[in-house]
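Is this the right way to post structure tokens for a design question? Let me know if I should format differently. Anyway, here goes:
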């Protein structure tokens, strides 16, 4: 009964805080995925551009941020960013330490990591588009902007859905590492609750269950989006998939 009271929503319960922390985890992950989508699209374009310099930059980005441990990148962004902001503030006459907000640092760090994986997802999705469709679009006089809007982007998004689902799950789990910055996301709140009550097993199991709920719901959403995209995909494109 005491354990149930600790997980309740009353004055002594941690349930409401765990729910709020779960929403914070979703917010960080969604922001990181959006940042990663922008970076990933730019890097994919660089790698597909045919320009050796841009392709090299894209390869360096994906190699570094897929090869370096995620926790190290979070440390570099959070502590390195705070040091840089403090140095700028000192140069402008401000005295004292200026810390980078935990949410911004965490979302940016996970977004940079996510971008390295999304770049490969988008690149693979573009290469999956039938070359015949692009040639036919050029033959009938479609200009580049129209080809991008009517052919390339819709099909890249369709082909990318499974990969983006995997990247979302990766980012969702990486968000637990942001707890080192002090942000009250799900992992951090579970740690604080466990330490405050000495009920380590209870709160870490509760945190794990909430993560499993998030990943299970995410799977259903992305699987549904993939089925819907495949239903609306032309038969020729289905064959290429």
């Amino acid at each position: 009964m005491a354990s149930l009271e600790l997980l309740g929503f009353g004055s002594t319960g941690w349930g409401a805080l765990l729910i709020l922390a779960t929403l914070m985890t979703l917010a960080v992950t969604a922001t990181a995925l959006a940042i990663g989508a922008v970076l990933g699209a730019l890097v994919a374009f660089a790698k597909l551009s045919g320009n050796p310099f841009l392709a090299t930059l894209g390869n360096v980005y994906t190699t570094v941020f897929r090869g370096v441990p995620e926790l190290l990148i979070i440390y570099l962004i959070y502590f390195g960013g705070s040091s840089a902001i403090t140095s700028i503030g000192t140069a402008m006459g401000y005295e004292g330490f200026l810390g980078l907000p935990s949410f911004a640092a965490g979302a940016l760090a996970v977004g940079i990591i996510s971008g390295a994986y999304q770049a490969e997802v988008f690149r693979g999705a573009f290469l999956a588009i039938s070359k015949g469709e692009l040639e036919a679009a050029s033959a009938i006089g479609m200009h580049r902007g129209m080809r991008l809007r009517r052919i390339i982007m819709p099909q890249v998004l369709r082909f990318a859905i499974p990969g983006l689902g995997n990247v979302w799950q990766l980012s969702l789990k990486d968000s637990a590492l942001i707890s080192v910055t002090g942000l009250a996301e799900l992992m951090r709140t579970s740690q604080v609750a466990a330490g405050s009550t000495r009920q380590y097993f209870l709160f870490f199991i509760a945190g794990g269950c909430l993560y499993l709920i998030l990943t299970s719901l995410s799977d259903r959403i992305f699987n549904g989006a993939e089925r819907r995209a495949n239903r609306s995909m032309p038969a020729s494109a289905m064959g290429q998939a």
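Format looks fine. Someone answered above. Worth noting: The longest helix spans residues 15-48. Confidence is low (pLDDT under 50) at residues 235-241.
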